[in-house]
Amino acid sequence: MQVKRPLLLIAGILLMAACLRAPITVVGPLLDVIRQDLRLDASQAGMLTTLPLLAFAGVSPFAAMLAHRYGLERALFGALVALVLGIVLRSIGASSPALFAGTCVMGAAIAIANVLLPSLLKRDFPHHVARLTAYYAFAMIAAAGAMSAIAVPLHNLLGRQWSISLASVALLPVLAALLWLPQLANRTQPPAPAPRAGRAMSVWRAALAWEVAVYLGLTCFIFFAALAWMPSILRGFGYTPARAGTLHGWMQLGSAMPSLLLLPMLRRLPDQRAVALVSPAVSAVGLAGLVLIPGGAVVWVFLLGIGMGAALILSLAFVGLRASTQRVAASLSGMSQCVGYLLAAVGPTLCGALRQLAGTWDVPLLACLILALAMCALGWRVGRAAQIPE
């Protein structure tokens, strides 16, 4: 397919990518304020990050159905509209029901775009997938980090109204939707999967597929727990809310760095064992540093971000690297995201519950440290040069 106005399409893709994490990460720096205002306990507050992850797992299998019915371009535009509505809903009235309902709508919209954007890249830019995926990942993580960094200053500037600060992130999908309008003239569908359900289900019986899924799940468990609670952790260590928000953005800037370097070099390596082991090991150093020397948080959160960012890029790349055919890749993508995000959904709520039970952030940090060390062993296995046969 010949792409008309490719630069406009790429700009729309990158701006849409910028919408996929920022609405979630903007909550972290304001979480203590929201908790106090709505009288939420730690587990309930953790659900503000858990609910989008549950939506990722539950809605992702239906995204392809929407694309086949309405076309990729229109399905993605609909996801942007739903994202704006979800952000507005969670912000109006500053009430718990609206907050949680809007978060669910927002998570469902992001899930659809999560699944369909890579499909659009592969269809329209088949020879530049790695490069554009790197830019896509950088836009996604950089926007998330920027929103984290400005959340508290914006909150103070807007009269200390957290609902207005949360609503401000709706500007991103509004701009993306406006830029996406020219694409609505197209109505193209992704190729229909072959009706071979028996073979498609074989990934659920493949040990390597489970290794890919669990590696993704543990990565997202640690990463999203950090996104949800890092500002609260840093405030517990004595940092001011503004400084904690800035460090939260600094962590996400660190997680964006590997996207520019890792994807282009992956296929040049004989295997990915060393990278898959070192990435969580770097995060483990950051987690250990937060427990032992919290005064050095500017270093530790950046290391945590670098390690988890690299592991996340690897987790997504493993879908293509470990699949022998495009059909297996599609099945592995659905299976790994379903299992991975279900496991990840436990992270924010469990870490909040551990903090509430133990009365200290050291316990959830140590739990994440243990999982990062387990990822090192798993990375040595999932990083070997092997593929799942069809």
Regions with little confidence, pLDDT below 50 for 5+ residues: 194-201
Radius of gyration: 20 Å
Helix fraction by DSSP (H/I, runs of at least 4): over 70%
On the 0 to 100 scale, the average pLDDT is: 85
Instruction: Tell me the number of strands.
Output: 0
CATH class of the largest domain: Mainly Alpha
Number of helices: 16
Q: What is the string of SSEs from the N terminus onward?
A: HHHHHHHHHHHHHHHH
- What is the CATH third-level topology name of the largest domain? Growth Hormone, Chain: A
Q: CATH homologous superfamily name of the largest domain?
A: MFS general substrate transporter like domains
CATH-derived architecture of the largest domain: Up-down Bundle
Shape: globular
Describe the largest sheet. Answer: none
Distance between the termini: 27 Å
Question: Strand pairing plus helix content: what structural class?
Answer: mainly alpha
Strand content: under 5%
Q: Number of folding domains?
A: 2
Please explain how this structure is put together.
With 390 residues, the chain is mostly helical. It has 2 domains: 186 residues, MFS general substrate transporter like domains (Growth Hormone, Chain: A, Up-down Bundle), CATH 1.20.1250.20; 194 residues, Up-down Bundle (Growth Hormone, Chain: A). It is built from 16 helices and no strands. Helix 7 runs antiparallel to helix 8 and helix 13 packs antiparallel against helix 14. The longest helix has 33 residues. About 2% of the residues have low confidence.
